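Crash report, auto-generated. Payload:
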Amino acid sequence: MSIKRIPQVVIQRLPRYYRYLGDLLSRGITRISSGELSRRMGVTASQIRQDLNHFGGFGQQGYGYNVETLYVEIGKILGQDQEYRVIIIGAGNLGHAVANYTNYKKQGYRVMALFDSNKELVGKVVQDSLIYSIEDLPEYLREHRTDIAVLTIPKDGALDVVETLVEGGIQAIWNFASVDVPLPNSQVVVENVHLSDGLRVLTYRLKELREQKEHLQERGL
Amino acid sequence: MSIKRIPQVVIQRLPRYYRYLGDLLSRGITRISSGELSRRMGVTASQIRQDLNHFGGFGQQGYGYNVETLYVEIGKILGQDQEYRVIIIGAGNLGHAVANYTNYKKQGYRVMALFDSNKELVGKVVQDSLIYSIEDLPEYLREHRTDIAVLTIPKDGALDVVETLVEGGIQAIWNFASVDVPLPNSQVVVENVHLSDGLRVLTYRLKELREQKEHLQERGL
DNA sequence: AAATATATGTGAAAAAAATCACTATGCTCC
DNA sequence: GGAGCATAGTGATTTTTTTCACATATATTT
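Recovered output after restart:
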């Protein structure tokens, strides 16, 4: 109902709700209350209700939420009611992993092609998709409508590839190259993934945990 | 100086500062001001200064920050002054990718072994590390001090493996299995990675972008 | 059919995070 | 070595996010 902008933090929480609801759905659970969902997810019920309310009332007082309805509605918000054509630039292990992962269980993403600069890989097939030479990318983009490009290449060539992609009309880039891709212009959206960031946060918390332990030991516990 | 707890959001931003500083360092830039760094990173200078101040004054008025000092200091905060022994559970594409990625350029992480349930992979070598049978995991853990376990397996067996890991004394789990691992107890830290969450946020923003475009077209622009 | 229990939606309050704006310090250049 | 400039550190303010708490609506039970 509201014209008010949806806060970014809320958007970032939606995929997690979506996962949990999908899980409930596959287990045959048809109804869920914010309280029960909050217990399972480890967040507050209040936050769940407030988040969902940004998009309108999906629930019913005294009853809760219908799992399927809520799942579908959040899916729509996230754009999961459409199919996206995906290409993957970089057919190394990570490219393969993403190809597997993305095609998995028909989630609305279709990997159409992979590209690599290694001539030995060109012509091979991954998950029903062909690996092309990176040199064929401009031509491919001219001939095939493509929604999302995934970058699973080392950082060195990454920004050049981005230029090619943007010139070829790509509107969304999922970037795993270890370099931040700045927004080339307002006609493109970019999601920069830095796996190592998560690993470093983990290390921080491990350090913290160990320090805590030491403190306890010092006090003879 | 402070005993005050560091906000989680600040911790999550540190790895990004760390990356940018590492990049500056490798390009021979020895000094940087919060203003200049803010321009490069696309955040406010104020936020940078405030974030860093949680850990004490690393800068100097009228000069800025010494890139190397700041890099090293943030590294220490993140626990990058130590080496971590890593094992990878799941030697598929993602496991391989993480093995490559984690060992890269001697970043303080050493991949010691991989484990897989596929007998055909057992005995092979990835990045100087041997692939073991998953059945050997308990024994391995008894004999080798290990800091971090990475889970790159499908979600089905994931929680069982976590149990084995925790019983074996693992304190940190970096989980790529498509299921949230709840904190088994307060002696373990877990970082759940859901690649698809980022993809869905990207899709949301792509949808938004396209809707915006449509609106503009309707108004004849 | 009434009574009771449940659980949403939401305005208000509280807490957290980000930004502002200024002070004081040390650098740089003349 | 002094003047002016640049910039960190930081208290105050603003904005954003989260949580609280309750009125209302629906379901369920007796």
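Post-recovery validation: Helices of chain A lie at 8-26, 34-41, 45-53, 67-77, 93-103, 137-143, 155-167, 195-218.
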